[in-house]
Amino acid sequence: MLAAFVCMVGFAAALAKATLVPQPGSVDLVHTNLHPGRSLHAYLDQPAFRDTVKQIGGNVLLGAPFGVLLPMLLPKARGAVRVVVVTALVMVAVETVQGLIVEGRAFDIDDVILNTTGALLGYVVIGRWLGHALHPRRRHWWHRWTQRQ
């Protein structure tokens, strides 16, 4: 549990560094995107496949630790829907801060979608298992009548 907490703190620091560092040289290139899919099309239309993988894969990988660490740290956040909702809320907050405060950065809904997809993948691949291993389901008194034998 302590290791998961340390990993989450480290991830939060890396997330802040990756997303909240000003990019003054990019001010003229960056535009707010509130239309889902617009940035994805731009990423896919890039001539260099490596840049496409870097943009899409980087955003997916950025969200994956949420899917792994949330179920470990917060048993009530266990479940695919809860992981998706919490990750989406956190990423909307990060993108909002980026768009409002950080020079050379803008809000992009596609980044939120890709980050949330990464969290869902992280949860499905390993987070669900780790969450159940650390926090097994409790058996309540009413389970005598509601659980199948």
Task: Give your account of this protein's structure.
It contains 6 helices and no strands. By secondary structure, it is mainly alpha-helical. The longest helix has 26 residues, at 109-134.
SSE inventory with pairings:
Elements: H1 2-19, H2 38-44, H3 49-73, H4 80-101, H5 109-134, H6 143-146
Helix pairs in contact: 1-3, 3-4, 3-5, 4-5
Describe the structure concisely for a colleague.
The protein is built from 6 helices and no strands. The chain starts with a helix and ends with a helix. The longest helix is centred in the C-terminal third of the chain and has 26 residues, at 109-134.
Features:
149 residues, elongated
Helix content: 55-70%
The coarse silhouette is: elongated
Strand content: under 5%
Helix and strand element order: HHHHHH
